[in-house]
Amino acid sequence: MRPSLPHRRPRLAPGGRVRLRDTAFGLASVLILFAPRTALATDAEVTSDTAAQFYDVRSPTGENVLNRRRLTTTLAVSAYNLLDAPAGDPSAPTLSFRARFRYDADFGVGSGAVDPTNFGSFVPGTSQGMVDMMYAYVEGRRFLHGWLGFRLGRQYVTDALGWWSFDGGQVTVTTPFLVKAEAYGGFEQRGGMPLSTSRFEGDGVWRGDRSNFDPSLAPAFQPAALAPAFGVALESTGLTWIHGRLTYRRVYDTGASNVTEFASGTYAPAAYDGARISSEKIGYAMDANFYTFGGVKAGIVYDLYSAEMTNLYATVDAYAGKKVTISADYDYYVPTYDADSIWNFFAGEPMNDAGLRANVNVTDRLSVSGGGHVRLFEVQTGPIDPANVGTYPPYTNYAPGQSVYPTNGHPFDEGGNLSARWRTGETLVTLRGSGNWGGEGDRAGADIAAQRVFDTRYVASVRTGVWQWNDKLEPDRSTTSFNYVLGLGYRFAPRSQALVEWENDMNGLVGQRYRLMLWLTLAVTK
Amino acid sequence: MRSVFSRLLSGGRGGTQGVVLTLLAFLVILAVVPVALAEAPAGALHGLAPLPDDQKVPHTLLPPGSLDPDEGPSDVIFPQQHITLRFNHAKHLAASMGLTCKTCHAAAYRSASAQDVLLPKPTTCDSCHSTEHDNLQAVKPGDDEKGQCAFCHLGYKTSDGNTVAALDMPRANLVFDHKSHVGRNIGCAQCHGPIEKLELATRDQLPRMLGCFHCHQMADSASQGSAKSACDTCHFRGDSKGGPTRIKTMFASGTLQPPQWLHNAEHTPDFLERHKLVAADDSAFCANCHTEDFCTDCHDGRVRPRSIHPNDYLNMHPVEARMEPQKCQSCHQEQSFCLGCHQRVGVAESSPTNAKDSGRFHPAKSIWSDPPMRAGSHGFEAERNLNQCVSCHTERDCVACHGALGVGAGFNPHRAGFLGGCETQMRRNPRPCYVCHEPGDAVLAQCR
Questions:
Q1: Cα-Cα-Cα-Cα dihedral of B158, B159, B163, B168, to 10°?
Q2: Nearest alpha carbon to residue A385 among B218, B421, B210, B208
């Protein structure tokens, strides 16, 4: 034991060094005072995925049209159990933070493509190296005895309305009555905004950051602006044999949008400004399982802006024993676009798809799935609406009562697929084959891939495939392709590995092409 | 050997000598048989399987939730066991014996973790079998047949001394609190089935997940705080590909995956094609095991996933895009991802002038644009699959001809019945109307 020192009162003067030391001492005291008495059992995780790719893009005539020298890397940081909940208590409230950033660069993009003053090469919206924040949110779960959950930040919503991202807040109230309610609001993630991509906005509008543009340049390229959005959902919870989610979402377009897209000034006004609907949809998806017999899944989406059902799907599964599932599928789909887009008003017709499929677990290691389907693409075969013809002089190309297309010509496309998987602890072999035949083209082929991990560290992989396609609109674009990929890697931790892949594609149109890929996956967890 | 014995028994060549030899042989047999009986119990052996002679256990005797036919519980959750004991539950639980489950498995009534050892201690057997297991380094057998080591320990031989075959009963990869279940008056049979009608309890008597769901159907906010159906109520979290908060799926005994009957989310080889059906309905179910990263790697990916797009896809994608349009949009925004690349390679009409020419994408003008309209005409193809147009054209390309004024002087692109809904659309967002029509255009009056 060290002898105790006589207490001395610190002298406050003279000199700044003493004051600085005292200040530091006081600050440290405050930090100690407010520091947690015990260390939190917080889990932290840092992950990163990096892919470098080197390849060329060639035109169907074999000319090299693009050099791609790509580097895509992500960095994700997460912290869990920020409330230091007791381990193994599934009822305890939890607080966590997750964020992931991405850098996506193509060093093959010439400087002219991103230079608005280089009219001959400039491609609006192109970036040589884009950084985006894929998600970053704080999430709380099971607060107030499990009733309350929330998320704050950039986050995803996945349901019948698709896969969507927004910046804002979401609150979930889970009741004991087998229903939970959800409400969220914020701004849709849009391309051209800081740290954002266009992946999640409605399609049909060429949009992005044109802050450095001459207004007369690329008038069809619309300026990005904030897109307020909100949504609500009702979802069943608890029951495991039946589940449903009813969801509604509305998104607004704001800011000016250029409607005069020709330098001639034919149209006026030059821009339309103001808050307006971007999309408004309501959807429902459900599934029910009758454990020993089978199940049913279905969904529907109604577009309140275009006032039509845009998606309807249903699947019925029959369990013919534990090893065999036989299913029937139906899918109705009609494309819709952002309400700023003119294509909502074009005669895009629905597609109907019906199919049968089966899965057989031949052994514990081998499973085989296969199925076939027919697809009906509709076109407007009846007479055009007389009310819409002849009321405006230029519409002389359609005569009242005239059939737009006398017949579909080829009402059905057909297709099928066959997949198989064989796996042991360290080996995975997969087969994936498919074929589709129709009036616009045919495509058929198969890939077989194998991966084996030796001594839990050394990774070897091979993939090869043969594909044949006929382009019936451009018959000279038809050919057969043979290709293979060889990979070697080293796994230095269960979730961290480095991998090198060599790809060689060859077809009769463009000849031999090569791609080198370098992968690095890292995960560190505390 | 048989001939020697027959000669001995029949007297053989030397009368008296044969009788003596026969008696000696008889004495040897008398001496050897008890030893043999001690090492291998006489009569039909019980307790080697759930039912005598390893008969198939009827469905009614299996744990609740067993399917018919039943293939046992999950190997991943309940790893394979190696049982080196024989035990007859039916006999021990018979009314005449006066024993209950708790007599031997008292620890289960106190256990809060599936990692606890719930088998009875060897000393539990001592009071009835007259054995002494106090010192496992020097176990003393009992006096009678039931007290012999080989009576319970399979394969035991006297020459093994104090060593018996090891019992391998791995812990369940599960979160489970026996105490709280017992506290809610849940009997053993509600999870394990009627053990009292069976002999040896094996993995087949361990609970089935489907049986858990007979009770576990409650939401997170269930006021009782019990019987929740959330995955982490029973399954471990952490240490798998999903990171610390997702359900642990990788075990030495295998990979945990949803069973066929749970949302029909069995990850079959074609699950990639149909996973939308599960995710669109209950994405939180997927999120039990997968993080967003798992989804984004494909749905917002910048690196081609080969399991979806095979090699040489750049050359074949136009054909697939025409045939399966909705699939492209599930991962790609056409007016940025598709159009941007098409502009750079010179396919798009809006490509910069210096872009290299990839050649004409569409059929010859005589088919594509000139009358008569037919399959192969651009209008026919657009109606059939408008998405393929949007992946390459800006709206300016279409307005050039379809606008009410200008070059094309108004080739009407609207579908039949368009006027029926245009009022609502124009009221909520008139912007697209003004791209083709001037605000004062008389025809717009039909939509006002």
A1: -80
A2: B421
Taken in order A151, A494, B285, B268, the sign of the CA dihedral is positive
Q: Nearest Cα to A500, choosing from A516, A513, A515? A: A516
The predicted model gives A288-292 an average pLDDT of 89
B263/A287 touch (CB, cutoff 8 Å), yes or no: yes
Alpha carbons B38 and B31: distance in angstroms, whole number? 12
Higher-scoring residue by pLDDT: B263, A421: A421
Looking at every residue in chain A, the average pLDDT score rounds to: 86
- Of B244, B287, B231, B219, nearest to A96 by C-alpha is B244
Spell out where A260-321 has E strands. Answer: 271-272, 276-290, 294-303, 308-319
CA distance A300 to B428: 23
ipTM of the complex: 0.87
CA distance A173 to A183: 9
Q: Which A-chain residues 1-20 have CB contacts (< 8 A) with chain B?
A: none
Spatial CA neighbour of A53 closest among A514, A521, A523, A522: A514
Distance CA B64, CA B21 (A): 62
Cα A518 to chain center, whole Å? 23
pLDDT of residue A515: 95
Least confident of A92-106, A368-382, A386-400, B332-346: A386-400
E strand intervals along A399-495: 412-423, 427-437, 441-454, 458-471, 479-493
Q: Shortest CB distance from A178 goes to which of B219, B417, B425? A: B219
The answer to whether residue B169 neighbours chain A at the CB level (below 8 Å) is no
Average pLDDT per block of 10 residues along chain B, 448 residues long: 41 50 58 45 75 93 92 93 94 92 94 93 92 92 91 92 92 93 94 96 95 91 77 84 82 90 91 92 93 90 89 92 85 93 91 84 86 78 90 90 68 78 90 86 84
- CA distances to A80, A135, B55, B241, B287 from B291, rounded to whole Å, are 13, 11, 45, 9, 6
Q: Which of A 384-423 lie inside 8 A of B, CB atoms?
A: 384-385, 387-389, 391-392, 394-395, 397-398, 404-405, 408-410, 413, 415, 417, 419-421
Q: Which residue has the tokens 């046992």?
A: B72
pTM of the model: 0.86
- Structure confidence by residue, pLDDT tens digits, A322-353: 899 999 999 999 999 999 999 998 888 889 99
With b meaning 16 or more CB within 10 Å and e meaning fewer, what string describes B334-359?
bbbbbbbbbbbbbbbebbbeebeebe
Q: Which two tokens stand for residue B332?
A: 């790609």
In chain B, the residue whose alpha carbon lies closest to the alpha carbon of A306 is B425
Pairing of strands A496-507, A479-493: antiparallel
Chain A from 253 to 272: CB within 8 A of any B CB? 253, 257, 259, 261-262, 264, 266-269, 272
pLDDT (0 to 100) of residue B48: 92
Q: B212-229 in b/e burial notation, b at 16+ Cβ within 10 A?
A: bbebbbbbbbbeeeebbb
pLDDT of residue B22: 57
Continuous segment of H or E residues that includes residue B181: helix B178-183
Rounded (10°) angle between helices B2-10 and B15-39: 130
Residue A394 banded pLDDT, cuts 50, 70, 90: very low
Distance CA B119, CA B139 (A): 18
Q: What is the pLDDT of residues A120-158, one digit of tens each?
A: 899 999 988 999 999 999 999 999 988 999 999 999 999
> Token pair 């084996």 is at which residue?
A452
Residue A469 forms contact with B (CB below 8 Å): yes
Looking at the complex, does the CB of residue A381 fall below 8 Å from at least one CB of chain B? no
Q: How open is the CA angle B113-B119-B122, to the nearest 5 degrees?
A: 140
Could A267 and B263 be called an inter-chain contact, meaning their C-beta atoms sit closer than 8 Å?
A: no
